[in-house]
Amino acid sequence: MARPVSRWxxxxxxxxxxxxxxxxxxxxxxxxxxxxxxxxxxxxxxLFEREAGPSHKIxxxxxxxxxxxxxxxxxxxxxxxxxxAISRLRLVRGGQMAETPLPFRGLGLSRCVLDHALLxxxxxxxADIRRGCEARIxxxxxGARVHVDGEEWGPEALLLATGKHDVxxxxxxxxxxxxxxxxxxxxxKLNQAQTKALRGSVEVIVFSHGYAGLQLVEEERxxxxxxxxxxxxxxxxxxxxxxxxxxxxxxEHLRQRLYGATPLLDRPLAIYRVPYGFVHAPLPGDAQxxxxxxxxxxxxxSFSGDGMAIALHSAALAAQSYLCGSGSREYHRRIRTDVxxxxxxxxxxxxxxxxxxxxxxxxxxxxxxxxxxxxxAAFTRVPPAAVMRVMG
Length: 392
Prior knowledge:
The chain has helices at about 5-10, 30-40, 65-75, 110-125, 190-200, 230-235, 240-250, 250-260, 305-325, 325-355, 355-370, 370-380, 385-390, and strands spanning about 15-25, 45-50, 60-65, 85-95, 95-110, 130, 135-140, 145-150, 150-160, 180-190, 200-205, 210-215, 220-230, 260-265, 270, 290. It is α/β, with parallel strands linked by helices. It folds into 2 domains: about 5-175 and about 285-390, FAD/NAD(P)-binding domain (3-Layer(bba) Sandwich), CATH 3.50.50.60; about 180-270, D-Amino Acid Oxidase, Chain A, domain 2 (2-Layer Sandwich), CATH 3.30.9. Strands 3, 4, 5, 10, 11, 12, 13, 14 and 15 form a 9-stranded mixed β-sheet that branches. Helix 2 runs parallel beside helix 9, helix 7 (about 240-250) packs across helix 8 (about 250-260) and helix 9 packs antiparallel against helix 10. It starts with 6 loop residues before the first helix and ends with a helix. The relative contact order is 0.16.
């Protein structure tokens, strides 16, 4: 017997139904990369992105070596985008600082620029990119279907790449509730002296209730990302200005960096209760034609992980799985094998870095054992063998 159709399903008027080999919902790194790879393989990939034009996203915007390798594999040339070269990591707590060279050259590159360039590249490869489209996804006995502006699409494969935001009726199944944390991201134009001091470095500034990341991106704009708990935000008057004032009072380093700085956004981007540590486990009720990508399949803590590389890895693996016919269940099994241990390690490091004893030990350990920071990074990255399986 057919399942009864929900009231919400009946409320969606379908004027025309289409078939397409692959439909991708979400035009971030995972969606854009998957669209390019599938189009290069000759597949009729259709991508829906809700933003009508280039847009900012909450992200530290540090493009690691692995992420650069994936983007090169997709065929995107990063050189013309003007990213800022980064070769050092600084860890700051109070008046203490530890610095170590990175084992590779990273790039500071805004997601606004990078994501737009990737979508344009996917379009040149032959993907059908449709911006300013709000897609609704419904599950049926025949699999997941996509509704956009009165039209229905029944794809062989639906790639869900909507980032950290859940989709109605397709919410991620969390083992435990997300922490009561708020994330912010904005840009500053630092004064000349502080711009010079920050060049070539990514800084992680640790506070008792969270941390901040600071680095330069293209045009030497400074990306400031903050993660704090809601209690501290409320103590700061529940305003961005109050929070930033209190953090600058707590950290002499941050106060110096922001002295005379000019805010470049009218207000920061914000996100609440990100499910750090989540890794998707296939469920019996999952639509057989749906592939979860990026933050829809795994959410690694930004403090200690590389979410951009995981997003690109998931795109490459999903494209490979679809093209070779292994299907979505095998894809989800493989992506879980590739990243679950890394997400768990990054989560453990994140909890250590947020605890009072851990914070007291961070700088002394980093100073006494500089290679430890690089080793920790290696333990939380996509394994080289997994990268080679999809890159080769």
